[in-house]
């Protein structure tokens, strides 16, 4: 997509604006499946929480992907997008038995991550096959907030509690058809990830009726030029070989599952915002845009890096700017960034805005959430309208109190 095309989209759909490149999503999906081409049964379940727009989900359906969901609402979105329930796996954390039963009633695969719910579910529904989420106690994420496989994590059942799991399974007569792990996001140490897979292989030997092993995801994508990223081809070569050998040891071919989100959609997205004010202080030049942490909270929440370009003046002289938002909090997108000279009214593009950007957006300060646009083969499609004041007040109930 050219800068001129992107700028034209902000004029057509207003600023700020999320723009997604469907062809990039497809190429990322193909890159992952090609890396594991030697595995007989491979299933990629897209992590809906990364970007849950129905039109994006339908792209994945056309690719024969499944869905990884973490709430009943995400399950319902998947069904609305046309997915077969058997192609949706429900992997919540810390939810009630009631919510798990709601998902069960919708016919999706169930993944349980604590012994309490496992025992309750097994006592009530021993006939329903389930997957068990294990915690391998391997640290493999780029930030403490997104590393979920370590010993202090709330996610999964500790591998040291495997005897307890087996006792629950034996006492309830449950059928365990899958084992699962997720070590965290931004994995770049393949050896650490492979150590975790060995732990999961050992766990899998305890369950004779498995149909699949789900290795989670968290593959790191580049956020700037020269950035470290997960070597998917190396991972595919090493894990495929080990997985195929394990299937021989286990006695039959299982399905190898992944649940990528960021890897598939992050680089496909750009967030476009217009510069409201260029403000010179005694020490800093601020470029204030018509957005804030209400639309892209990751830099404030995770200290994440999003490359910022001035697409209105891509050849201009580079100067140092601190790019900030219009929210009444400190909402800094980037500090002392070298960006081509910025003028008020210019459009800035925030890269890697496909994952965990719109899905984490809010109406903080009673601001509207922007429109979403998908681009495929040069044609733009509006896939979510910009909000209005009616959207903000729609569910409110106005009560007048006599004082």
Automatic annotation (TrEMBL):
Family statement drawn from the similarity comment of this UniProt entry: Belongs to the Orn/Lys/Arg decarboxylase class-II family. LysA subfamily.
NCBIfam families named in the record: lysA
Catalytic activity reported: meso-2,6-diaminopimelate + H(+) = L-lysine + CO2
Protein name according to UniProt: Diaminopimelate decarboxylase
Domain of life from the UniProt record: Bacteria
Cofactor(s) needed by this chain: pyridoxal 5'-phosphate
Alphabetical list of InterPro entries matching this protein: Ala_racemase/Decarboxylase_C (IPR009006), DAP_deCOOHase_LysA (IPR002986), De-COase2_C (IPR022643), De-COase2_N (IPR022644), Orn/DAP/Arg_de-COase (IPR000183), PLP-binding_barrel (IPR029066)
EC number: 4.1.1.20
CDD domains with a match to the protein in the record: PLPDE_III_DapDC (cd06828)
Amino-acid biosynthesis listed as a keyword: yes
Pfam families: Orn_Arg_deC_N, Orn_DAP_Arg_deC
Gene from which this protein is expressed: lysA
Residue numbers binding substrate: 298, 302, 329, 356
Subunit structure and binding partners: Homodimer.
Chain positions with N6-(pyridoxal phosphate)lysine modification: 49
Binding-site residues, pyridoxal 5'-phosphate: 218, 356
Alphabetical list of HAMAP family matching this protein: LysA (MF_02120)
Source species of the chain: Lutimonas vermicola
Role noted for this protein: Specifically catalyzes the decarboxylation of meso-diaminopimelate (meso-DAP) to L-lysine.
This protein's pathway: Amino-acid biosynthesis; L-lysine biosynthesis via DAP pathway; L-lysine from DL-2,6-diaminopimelate: step 1/1
Gene Ontology MF terms: diaminopimelate decarboxylase activity
Residue ranges of domain Orn/DAP/Arg decarboxylase 2 C-terminal in the record: 18-354
Transmembrane segments: none
Domain Orn/DAP/Arg decarboxylase 2 N-terminal: start-end pairs: 24-266
Keywords assigned: Amino-acid biosynthesis, Decarboxylase, Lyase, Lysine biosynthesis, Pyridoxal phosphate
């Amino acid at each position: 997509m050219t800068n001129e095309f992107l700028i034209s989209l902000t004029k057509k759909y207003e600023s700020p604006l999320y723009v997604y490149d469907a062809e990039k999503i497809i190429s990322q999906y193909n890159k992952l499946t090609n890396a594991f081409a030697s595995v007989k049964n491979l299933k990629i379940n897209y992590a809906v929480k990364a970007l849950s727009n129905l039109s994006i989900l339908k792209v994945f359906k056309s690719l024969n992907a499944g869905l990884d969901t973490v709430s009943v609402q995400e399950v319902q979105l998947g069904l609305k997008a046309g997915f077969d329930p058997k192609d949706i796996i429900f992997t919540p954390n810390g939810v009630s038995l009631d919510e798990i039963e709601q998902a069960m009633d919708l016919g999706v695969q169930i993944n349980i991550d604590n012994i309490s719910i496992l025992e309750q579910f097994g006592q009530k529904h021993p006939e329903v096959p389930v997957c068990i989420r294990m915690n391998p106690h391997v640290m493999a994420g780029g930030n403490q907030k997104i590393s979920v496989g370590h010993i202090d994590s709330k996610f999964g059942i500790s591998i040291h509690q495997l005897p307890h799991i087996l006792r629950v399974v034996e006492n309830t007569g449950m059928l365990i058809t899958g084992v699962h792990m997720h070590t965290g996001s931004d994995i770049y140490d393949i050896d650490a990830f492979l150590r975790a897979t060995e732990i999961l292989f050992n766990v899998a030997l305890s369950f004779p009726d498995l149909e699949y092993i789900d290795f989670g995801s968290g593959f790191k994508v580049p956020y700037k030029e020269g950035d470290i990223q997960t070597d998917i081809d190396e991972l595919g070569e090493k894990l495929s070989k080990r997985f195929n050998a394990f299937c021989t040891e286990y006695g039959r071919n299982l399905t190898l599952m992944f649940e990528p989100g960021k890897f598939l959609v992050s680089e496909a997205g750009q967030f476009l915002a217009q510069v409201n004010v260029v403000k010179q202080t005694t020490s800093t030049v601020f470029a204030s845009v018509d957005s804030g942490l209400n639309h892209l909270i990751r830099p404030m929440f995770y200290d994440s890096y999003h490359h910022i370009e001035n697409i209105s003046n891509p050849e201009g002289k580079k100067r140092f700017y601190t790019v900030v938002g219009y929210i009444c909090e400190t909402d800094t997108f980037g500090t002392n960034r070298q960006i081509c000279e910025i003028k008020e009214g210019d459009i800035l593009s925030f890269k890697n805005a496909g994952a965990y950007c719109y899905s984490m957006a809010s109406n903080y300060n009673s601001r509207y959430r922007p429109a979403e646009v998908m681009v495929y083969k040069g044609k733009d499609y509006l896939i979510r309208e910009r909000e209005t004041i009616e959207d903000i007040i729609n569910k409110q109930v106005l009560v007048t109190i006599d004082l």
